Recover the amino acids of this structure.
């Protein structure tokens, strides 16, 4: 017999998580975009509206299941907007919400850092306080 475990809301772990979410802005952001694929999805949508198939082509390494899950989570977190037209076959586009647009400077900073690191701009073994 399979039995699901109920999370005890008064547990220390849950209290610590709630405290971190309330007190730490980085924890709040990472709770929204802290997966491997979500920032990549947001980065691709920063260039404009995209259909599911366009996103899949732009991010070929992501599985269909994971892409669908993350799109739903981003929509639930109100970072993207799913626009479904009532036609046959269905015509669905995804775009950034106002909150999603607010994350673009963060995503672009990550992309710029990656380009600089790949170009060898950062000496990995060097202490910045020296």
């Amino acid at each position: 017999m399979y039995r699901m475990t109920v999370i005890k809301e008064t547990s220390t772990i849950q209290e610590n998580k709630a405290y971190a979410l309330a007190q730490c802005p980085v924890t709040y952001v990472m709770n929204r975009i802290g997966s491997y694929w979500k920032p990549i999805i947001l980065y691709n949508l920063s260039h404009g509206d995209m259909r599911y198939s366009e996103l899949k082509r732009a991010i070929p390494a992501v599985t269909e299941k994971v892409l669908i899950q993350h799109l739903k989570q981003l929509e639930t977190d109100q970072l993207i907007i799913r626009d479904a037209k009532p036609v046959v076959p269905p015509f669905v586009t995804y775009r950034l919400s106002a909150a999603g647009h607010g994350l673009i400077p963060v995503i672009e900073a990550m992309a710029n850092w990656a380009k600089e690191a790949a170009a060898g701009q950062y000496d990995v073994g060097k202490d910045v306080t020296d």
Notes: The mean pLDDT is 86. Residues 104-118 form the longest helix (15 residues). Strands lie at 50-51, 80-85, 91-96.
